[in-house]
Structure formats: structure tokens, C-alpha cells
Amino acid sequence: MSKNTKIDYSEIEPLVRGVVFEVIKNNSAYKHIVDDLIQQGFAKAIEVIDKYDSSRGASIQTYIKKCVKNEIINMLREETQIMKAIKVIDEVNIVDSSFLKYDLKLLEKHISNFIDANPGLFSEEDKEIIQLRIMGYKYDEIAKKIGKTKKYVDNSIQRIKKIIAKEFKL
């Protein structure tokens, strides 16, 4: 308990939960991190109890809610940046990018040249997968065509992307 106020720690959890659900109530994109938000909010609440100054006019509950809300909003900003980065990574793949046709053809040519110039770097199956992907086939279509699972194709493409990204410094 803080020396400036009387609050039972059992009162903090409902305050924190209330703030978290209030902040994310209209955005289902953050439902997957509710537990993290509550945990961080609880940690923030405990941290700020000792900083509470009753002479400022706000109740300890109001002070905790405000501090936790600010902490949650900051976490959501960070999460939004992460989600945007993931979306960009997903969008900037070899075929599904928003390159102009010329840029896409140029990139395809560079990738093909890179693959040809490094014969030991990719298996024949990897080469087939990347060529099918460049041609516009989706993961499940590639999997069916080569007789493998969609997960296998995804893992292969992720591995290929890492190698290509490293080479082209993407």
C-alpha cells in the first residue's frame, strides 16, 4: 500500500481490466493481446501507487485508471506498428507486391539470375516452388502441384525469402 493512500491490491485488477476493455472495446484487432495488456496494466498500476499524491485532487482509482490507460494506449501504438510492419512484410512478397509490372519483371529477372548464379543455394524443389510463385500460383496450388503440404510450401518460401532478402539487402 502507498503511504499516501489506502488501496487494497485486490481492487487493482478490476480497475485494470475495466480500463483495458474500455480501450480495446471497439477494436477486435487487439483481442489476441488482452492478457498482455492486463498484465502490463497491472504492473503499471502497482508502479504508480507510490507516486500518487492525494493533494492533487484526484482519487487513487482515477489516478491509476489514467496511468494505466496511457500505458495501454502506448502498448497499442507499439502493437499497431508491429502489425503494420507484419502487413507490409506480407504484402511485399515476390508476386503479391504492388510493384509496377516493369519493376516486378526486373525483380523476377534478378531473382532468376541470383538462383542461376548460386546453384547450390537452392534445391531443385525450392527452384520449382519459387518459379511457380513468380508465375502467380498460390501456396495451396503449389502444394498440390508438387505433392507437398501447404505448410511445407510456406516454410520453403519463407526460407527462400530470407536468402533473397539477405542477398538483395531488403
Describe the structure.
The protein is mostly helical. It starts with 11 loop residues before the first helix and ends with a helix. It has helices at 12-24, 34-49, 60-91, 101-117, 124-134, 139-146, 150-168. The chain contains seven helices and no strands. The radius of gyration is 25 Å and the shape is elongated. The protein has two domains: 9-90, no CATH class; 101-168, Orthogonal Bundle (Arc Repressor Mutant, subunit A), CATH 1.10.10. 14% of the residues are buried.
Q: Keyphrases for this structure?
A:
Arc Repressor Mutant, subunit A; mainly alpha; 2 domains; 170 residues; single chain; 0% strand
Which whole number gives the mean pLDDT? Answer: 80
Radius of gyration, CA atoms, in whole angstroms: 25 Å
Gross geometry: elongated
How many domains in all?
2
Q: What's the helix-strand series?
A: HHHHHHH
Q: What is the count of helical runs? A: 7
Structural class: mainly alpha
Give the amount of beta strand, in percent.
under 5%
First CA to last CA: what distance? 51 Å
Task: Report the count of strand segments.
Answer: 0
Write the layout of secondary structure elements.
Layout (H helix, E strand, L loop, with lengths): L11 H13 L9 H16 L10 H32 L9 H17 L6 H11 L4 H8 L3 H19 L2
